[in-house]
Amino acid sequence: MGQCGINSSIEEIHSFRKCHIAGFGMHSAASKKASSGPPTKKSKLAAAAASADPVEIVQVSCGEQFSVALSSKGHLYSAGSGEFGQLGNGATGEHFVTANKLAFDNATKFERRALFCDQDSGKDVNANTAIVPLPDSSEIVIRSIACGKNHSIALEAPTQPGTAPRLFTWGCGDYGCLGHGKQADEYFPRLISTFSEQKALFLSNAPRKVTAGAQCGMVLTEMGHVYYWGRHRPVGEATMRPTLVDALANNSHVIVSVSGGNQTLVCATKNGSTVAWGNGTHGELGFGPTQKSSSKPIFVEALDMCRVSQVACGYGHTLYLVQHADAEDKAAVSKLKSLECQGLDGFIHATASMASCDADEDDGKKSTKKGRSKKK
After folding, report:
1. Mean pLDDT over residues 13-36, rounded?
2. Rounded distance, CA 337 to CA 164, Å?
3. DSSP run (H or E) holding 32
4. What CA–CA distance (Å, rounded) separates 16 from 243?
5. So what's the pLDDT on residue 31?
6. Model pTM greater than 0.90?
7. Sheet with strand 226-230: strands edge to edge
8. Rg (CA), the chain
9. pLDDT at 274 over 50
10. Is the pLDDT of residue 119 over 50?
11. Torsion angle of alpha carbons 151, 157, 161, 167, nearest 10°?
């Protein structure tokens, strides 16, 4: 599908490859070809790409068959499948390969997405929403990105005083996971109306980070509140617009990290409490062997008093980054159960030996290279 962005649609990649960004990293041959004949429109574009500043990627996020990247300038790039509009380029590229087989246009390298649409009117949830580009689309700077299974979320960076950052979603709209109040796919990043309509509220409690589960989205604000939309359990109604998780806010929980998995949600608080809810059939909620689900947030007792600085939910597991800074942190961590370590000594020794051999081999290769010697 091209979701690795290596300018190829091969099914499997078994070694690290450098990602390609459209217009960058491949201009050497193009610039040489352009210089061999009279200037054309194509050669001028190639020359412009060759002289442009390189793109520095600072954040990436992956969906099921697509990827989104964020540059240091706050620009969005995407690659992979465009079946549900998750590339944000305005189309799915749906076409017939054979008489009864559909296919979609994919992006095999990262391409910039610079068109952002205004919010929907909200008058008719069944009507197709008009594409009305925001006047400042080309000037929008993104701060945080997140990908669900087939949808994406982007949070604008703080701009001028007196304005709250804007939130955009696009891709598959099943179960309200885009937060627009309707089940409709969006092919361009579209502004979520909830945050702009309640501008006064979010001026003092602005969104600062976004995260996504498989079919839901969440926003963490400056005051540690969490807003949720979509659906993370196979039962129950979907939340069609961003809604405050009042079970946390009303109990004075200040959230520092939040994450969503396939059917789970986990929040870590500032005072050393961790709460989770959803369906954890593989034990990913951390409630123990007897409880595998919860419709409401409840405490993860095994992590009591552990200060979690970051949590990450997968499709069948959860990882926590726990602080180990002072005596209180160390005492809390010491109560946690440890994985079996038997047999790891041999693995560690073998890995160290392989690393040593690789280093010796690299040194041998370096000694045969020509070049300027190092100054003593």
Report:
1. 62
2. 43
3. helix 27-34
4. 40
5. 34
6. no
7. 207-212, 216-221, 226-230, 239-244
8. 24
9. yes
10. yes
11. 0
Q: What are 129-146's pLDDT values in tens digits?
A: 678 999 999 999 999 999
Q: Report the sign of the C-alpha dihedral through residues 9, 11, 14, 16, in that order.
A: positive
Distances (CA, A) of 325 to 134, 275, 347: 46, 22, 29
Is 238 buried (19+), middle (13-18) or exposed (0-12) by CB count in 10 A?
Answer: middle
| CA-based max dimension of the chain | 74
Residues 238, 217: Cα–Cα separation, whole Å: 12
- Mean pLDDT for all residues in the chain: 83
For CA atoms 261, 277, 256, 268, the dihedral sign is negative
Of the chain, the end-to-end C-alpha distance in Å amounts to 51
| Banded pLDDT at 236 (limits 50, 70, 90) | confident
Residue 372's pLDDT is 39
Is residue 160 left, alpha or beta, with left meaning phi > 0 and alpha meaning psi from -120 to 50? Answer: beta
Residue with tokens 């929907």: 120
d(CA 127, CA 121): 10
Query: Residue 42: is it exposed, middle or buried by C-beta count within 10 angstroms (0-12/13-18/19+)?
Result: exposed
Among candidate residues 112, 107, 88, the one with its CA nearest the CA of residue 190: 88
Tokens of 185: 């796919």
Q: What is the pLDDT of residue 135?
A: 92
Measured in degrees and rounded to the nearest 5, phi and psi for residue 191 equal -65, 130
**DSSP notation for 180-227:** SSS---EEEEEE-HHHHHTHHHHHSS-EEEEEE-SSEEEEEETTS-EE
State CA 26 to chain mean position distance: 26
Separation of alpha carbons 315 and 293, rounded Å? 15
User: Which residues fall within 8 angstroms of residue 213, CB to CB, at 6 or more apart?
Assistant: 148, 230, 232, 259, 260, 261, 262, 263, 264, 265, 313
